[in-house]
């Protein structure tokens, strides 16, 4: 077992975790999702938190034909060049074109009623909104020889949604590594594609440890507690697009943990262990994985100082499996996830085709704190808090790492850098929003 004396900076450890996990990007490969609202309804989870696997080429333009942006009259702009309120230009009304109607020809010197989305009849080059026409309503079908007057000129192109003005056929529609949200699925479907290649989800074997932890729904013996970490980290990992298999090790025996790992390792791209890494008498993760070469160290982060990482060959697996070891206090585990695991795994998932992954951090914002507080000089603190409506940061709960309810009540993690000991009301600090 290697034990480093000096504390590693939070940035250095983040880079080390990313270096450990980066090779996963090469092994993910792609899955193909059918693009159908029925399939989304049948299996919504399949479409959640997915990332595009390839640079997607647009098979068609959007819009794929010039069409009207308004209900109005398609005209030749030149016909209205002289129109004024005093001397309106009056034109005969041609046959109406609705969305979905075939392409038509426009006769100069007429006004063609066009509905939103209708193909602009060839020859027309502008649309005048119906509200700007006189009368400002379309003539009923019963009216023969209807005319319409215009009181102002129109610039060519007005309210014409030009072919390719959103997407041009043959262009890169979306780049590999794009997280797919509603608009992405929509635009891909809009170009006529029927399926989309996405990155396979990283498979995480999540092993919470401790002989005191039990599943919810069981009868606790004195001294036992319910397992918070398996749930919290399963959700956190799934929210960044991972598939999680949670296999708690309810024992502090190294052999028991090794058996759990050997069982789950063949189906995993990485292992995240929780608990058993600090300086207690029996630290099951250190005891089991230290002899296999996993490094345990202290990071200048609070909470979340004790950390471990390395590669192990275990079970039926032949290849070294990356292992990230987080501390077991529930707040430490989640803060460690935010500081190290999330940026590294997101980087792996969101990497472009040729680019080396960079830690994918939450957006750093800055705001004044509402109240003063102390901070230990040697550690970067990630305090839990809320952003108040007045734009100031208010801490929620104390610095202790068991205050999971306080974490749940928080919307931000507030950064208090190494070297800062006294924070006064009004001092500005960086923060991450964690509520999205
Ligand atoms: P450890 O890192 O294993 O020393 O655990 C630190 C603290 O976190 C102890 O109070 C543990 O009981 C608690 N803890 C560890 N694992 C869990 C878990 N899965 N759920 C809730 N609390 C835990
Ligand atoms: Mg423990």
The spatial strand order of the largest sheet comes to: 1-21-23-24-20-16-19
CATH fold-type name of the largest domain: Molybdenum Cofactor Biosythetic Enzyme, Chain A
Bound molecules: adenosine monophosphate, magnesium ion
Q: Measured on Cα atoms, how large is the radius of gyration?
A: 31 Å
Question: Main sheet?
Answer: 7 strands, mixed
Q: What's the end-to-end separation, in Å?
A: 38 Å
- Report mean pLDDT, rounded to a whole number: 95
User: How many distinct domains?
Assistant: 4
- What is the CATH level 1 assignment of the largest domain? Alpha Beta
Uncertain segments of ≥5 residues (pLDDT<50)? none
In CATH, the homologous superfamily of the largest domain goes by the name: MoaB/Mog-like domain
User: Considering DSSP H and I runs of 4 or more, what fraction of the residues is helical?
Assistant: 10-25%
Q: How many individual helices?
A: 10
Ordered list of secondary-structure elements with their pairings:
Layout: E1 2-3, H1 10-21, H2 24-28, E2 30-34, H3 37-42, H4 44-47, E3 50-51, E4 56-57, E5 67-68, E6 72-75, E7 89-92, E8 112-114, E9 126-129, E10 133-134, E11 147-150, E12 160-161, E13 172-174, E14 179-180, H5 182-190, E15 195-199, E16 203-208, E17 213-214, E18 225-226, H6 229-239, E19 243-246, H7 254-264, E20 270-274, H8 284-289, E21 295-298, E22 301-302, E23 306-312, E24 321-326, H9 330-350, E25 364-368, E26 373-374, E27 380-387, E28 393-395, H10 404-408, E29 412-416, E30 422-423, E31 428-433
Parallel strand pairs: 1-21, 16-19, 16-20, 17-18, 20-24, 22-27
Antiparallel strand pairs: 2-15, 3-14, 4-13, 5-12, 6-8, 6-9, 7-11, 10-11, 21-23, 23-24, 25-31, 26-30, 27-28, 27-29, 29-31
The site of magnesium ion has 5 residues, from loops.
């Amino acid at each position: 077992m290697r034990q480093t004396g000096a504390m590693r900076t939070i940035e250095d450890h983040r880079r080390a975790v990313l270096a450990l996990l980066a090779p996963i990007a090469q092994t993910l490969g792609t899955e193909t999702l059918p693009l159908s609202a029925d399939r989304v309804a049948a299996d919504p989870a399949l479409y959640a938190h997915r990332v595009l696997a390839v640079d997607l080429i647009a098979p068609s333009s959007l819009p794929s034909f010039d069409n009207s942006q308004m209900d109005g009259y398609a005209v030749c702009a030149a016909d209205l060049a002289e129109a004024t309120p005093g001397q309106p230009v009056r034109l005969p009304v041609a046959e109406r074109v609705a969305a979905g109607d075939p392409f038509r020809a426009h006769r100069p010197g007429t006004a063609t009623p066009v509905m939103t989305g209708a193909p602009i009849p060839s020859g027309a080059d502008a649309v005048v909104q119906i509200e700007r026409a006189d009368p400002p309503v379309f003539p009923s079908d019963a009216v023969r020889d209807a005319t319409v007057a215009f009181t102002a000129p129109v610039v060519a192109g007005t309210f014409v949604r030009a072919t390719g003005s959103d997407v041009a056929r043959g262009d890169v529609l979306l780049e590999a590594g794009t997280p797919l949200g509603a608009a992405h699925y929509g635009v891909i479907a809009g170009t006529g594609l029927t399926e989309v290649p996405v990155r396979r989800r990283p498979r995480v074997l999540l092993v919470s440890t401790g002989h005191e932890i039990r599943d919810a729904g069981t009868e606790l013996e004195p001294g036992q507690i319910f397992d918070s970490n398996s749930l919290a980290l399963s959700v956190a990992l799934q929210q960044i697009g991972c598939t999680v298999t949670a296999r708690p090790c309810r024992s502090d025996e190294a052999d028991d943990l090794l058996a759990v790992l050997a069982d789950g390792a063949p189906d995993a791209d990485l292992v995240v262990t929780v608990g058993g890494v600090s300086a207690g008498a029996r630290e099951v993760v250190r005891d089991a994985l230290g002899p296999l070469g996993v490094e345990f160290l202290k990071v200048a982060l609070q909470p979340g100082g004790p950390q471990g990482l390395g590669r192990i060959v275990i079970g039926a697996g032949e290849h070294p499996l990356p292992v990230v070891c987080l501390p077991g206090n529930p707040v430490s585990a989640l803060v460690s996830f935010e500081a190290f695991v999330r940026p590294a795994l997101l980087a792996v998932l969101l990497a472009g085709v040729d680019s080396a992954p960079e830690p994918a951090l939450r957006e750093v914002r800055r705001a004044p704190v509402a109240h003063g507080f102390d901070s230990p000089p040697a550690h970067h603190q990630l305090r839990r808090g809320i952003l108040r409506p007045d734009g100031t940061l208010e801490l929620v709960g104390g610095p202790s790492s068991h205050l999971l309810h306080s974490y749940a009540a928080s919307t931000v993690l507030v950064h208090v850098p190494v070297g800062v000991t006294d924070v006064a009301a009004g001092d500005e600090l960086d923060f991450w929003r964690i509520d999205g």
